[in-house]
Amino acid sequence: MARLGDYIEQIRGVSYKPEDVCSSTDIDAVAILRANNIQDDELNFDDLVYVRKSKVHEKQYIQKGDIVVCASSGSKNLVGKAAVAKENMQISFGAFCKVVRPTGLLPGYVGHFFQSPKYRSTISDLSGGANINNIRNEHIDELDIVIVSEEEQEKIINELDAISNLISLRKQQLAKLDELVKSRFVEMFGDYRINNKGFNCKKGSELFKFSSGKFLPEEKRLESGIPVYGGNGIAWYTEEALIDFSTIIIGRVGAQCGNIHAVTTPVWITDNAIYIKEQKTKAYTLEFLTELMRMMNFYQYADFSGQPKITQKPLETLEYIIPPIELQKEYTAFVEQIDKSKFEIQKSLNQLEILKKALMQKYFGEGV
Question: How far apart are CA 53 and CA 92, in angstroms?
């Protein structure tokens, strides 16, 4: 074991002023990565901001092998997230990020360390703050890392890269199946926004009775049992169900408010989510209504004056197409076939992720 700080250099992101920001079309524009660009252990280049090149120091450009880390966040789940740059880029990074640049170990080896359970749990414990969670240089410098020969590092990198690539492939397969479901929906039901198939329509208040969930005390939040749905999906588990019928849950509060989850088993729903307590007319199959609501993108009706949130009002005032139930059943049968394929892929994905976690623990140590 050795102190990580002896094998890396840390470079903190820069806080740019509003007057530094420019258009992506400017000839001297430089893209800036932010915390939201670190997703699923990879760098995502959507929603970039740009500043003038004169404001970016040469050392701030991202190099191949750099590990871009979310260094400040209001969320414990986001702080510490990291992704490895796969090539040299004329891109920099903002104030809420930092770069860890390996100097005495192979970048891929250090990069995998930053995805390990040990790193994630340790950095989460260290990064506490009153409102914002911050990672200081010493938090990373004082981490312990296992030192092995360069040959052994190469072996570990190749093994973990292979598993990571398979995990990425499984996720791509799931995404393609989701796209297939969306395409089939549009083929059968057209564009719901203009109702070009001429279906009947009704307001949400005529079709559904919505209800908010119920607060779950902290002492009842468990790591297994009955799923507890909050604003962003499953948050915890518990011993008691709030409802025991099939329905749709809509995230009410949080960065992913408006997200849609169909449930067919008993669940608890917190007050950070809304659910359909009753279908007044029994006009829909669960599968059709789930995809319709996802396409309607309730997030666009959120209030952003504070923490993003939606209310029941837009859900009740929006108009919903009502295709013939037989057509919906045909679509449901298609979705059920796709779900069978997704189940097998998800099963493989789960096994790969368990294997990767076990190897991470073997090579880098146990998480807390």
Answer: 10
